[in-house]
Amino acid sequence: PGDVEAARKANGATNVAVLEAAMDAKVKRAVVVGATMPPWLDKIAEGYARGKRDAFEALGGFALSGGAVVVKPSAIYGTRHTESGYPIPLAPVMAPLSYALRIGRPVTRYAPSFLDGLLEPPVPVHAVAQTVVDACLQEEYEEGFVALGVEAILERC
β-pairing, 29-33 with 144-148? Predict the structure, then answer.
């Protein structure tokens, strides 16, 4: 239970506080990195999932007064580093997997529901970053609520 609340706070309450401060300061646009949220995520990462939903809900409130964008990636890959700083590049495995899942989309759409989320193509961290920058700067996101999912992120590869 403590881990659940800590994860919920880290992924939700922190974002909610920032969004509330932005609304108070009359900021015109907010961008939040959310996540693709398959139903089974609640069972294995309840705090993370609940926190992301808390942030998503707060972003919806922000949209009433300005532009609100949620970027919803699937698994994100780049270079990870161990505690000792050793780099582990994930692209050699994840990029081909992402490509295979993209070209297999017509087939994977008919997969059983327990696979929801597992068949979303992983996205490179640089594409997530570019999507966030675009959401911050492009005029099309000045008003209302927009969700940018995996397809929109992959367009930036």
Answer: unpaired
